[in-house]
Specification:
The protein is of the alpha+beta class and 268 residues long. The protein has a domain at 40-147: Cytochrome C3. The chain is built from nine helices and seven strands. A hairpin with an 8-residue loop joins strand 5 (192-194) and strand 6.
Length: 268
């Protein structure tokens, strides 16, 4: 891509007239495999004390089931790994993982319980379906089988999740019975342009429709973007690469920042 070299000069690419900030580490990160992109390791309860491995959470599998908003707003998972403090007791009570993993039907299929008060023979095998880090665990859902027919892209999971959702190839639920509040939908704002400050760099077209399909309004506002009016929140590309603003999701779970032309789409 002819714009990639420009985009990586993050100190000079600034949105909405905001000042640049310093803080780049200069450490080159290894690009993860498609199936490992977005993988989160959870070990807030120090699982090794109980002979279990830390939990490996695959975003690619769960995003075929629910929207981001259901998990990160209605259920209450923090947007940062380890930020929730999940305990087995919480799951048993029907919170966090236990909101869905409760032995009840979900999308036409019974979902295994995440944690159980009664430890029965063969129970360890069920525990290791989640507590799988460092264990030789055969997964029920392979990445290739689940994503094989989904539309492809170059980076991240190698899946165009926006296209997959809009085409109905995946149908993530937007409301979890007994957990999500019932509320009227707000009108979706129209797409708008964001202007980079590098000459010749294509403008960004930001789509509220695409983002609200997965996030609603609550994932982004007000914790990530305080204002709801264009230009209210000032941010730079350096901050995004540092995991702030757009970088809260992009580069971790949503498509990575190296896919410049997914955002910079409008020729100047």
């Amino acid at each position: 891509m002819r714009y990639l070299g420009i985009a990586l000069l993050a100190g000079f690419l600034v949105f909405a007239g905001s000042p640049t900030v310093s803080g780049q580490t200069g450490i080159k990160k290894k690009r993860s495999s498609a199936q490992d992109y977005g993988k989160v390791v959870i070990n807030t309860a120090n699982s090794e004390r109980y002979g279990l491995g830390p939990v490996q959470f695959d975003h690619w599998l769960h995003r075929t089931k629910t929207t981001c908003r259901v998990c990160h707003v209605d259920i209450g998972f923090a947007m940062k790994a380890g930020g929730t403090g999940i305990r087995a007791e919480d799951n048993m009570a029907g919170y966090y993982c236990g909101s869905c993993h409760n032995g009840k039907p979900f999308q036409g299929k019974v979902v295994f319980e995440s944690c159980s008060r009664e430890f029965r023979t063969g129970e360890l095998k069920r525990c290791e379906r989640c507590h799988s880090l460092g264990k030789q665990v055969k997964l029920e859902n392979s990445f290739a089988a689940v994503t094989g027919d989904l539309p492809k892209e170059r980076y991240g999971n190698g899946i165009d999740w926006v296209k997959a959702e809009s085409a109905g190839a995946v149908k993530p639920v937007r409301h979890l019975e007994g957990v999500s509040p019932r509320a009227s939908s707000l009108p979706v704002q129209k797409d708008f342009l964001l202007n980079p400050k590098v000459a010749g760099m294509p403008e960004i077209i930001f789509s509220h429709q695409k983002h609200t399909a997965w996030n609603g309004c609550q994932v982004c506002h007000p914790e990530i973007f305080i204002g709801v009016k264009k230009g209210t929140t000032k941010y730079s590309m350096v901050e995004i690469f540092d995991g702030k603003f757009c970088g809260v999701c992009h580069g971790k779970v949503a498509f990575p920042l190296m896919d410049c032309e997914r955002c910079h789409t409008q020729p100047v």
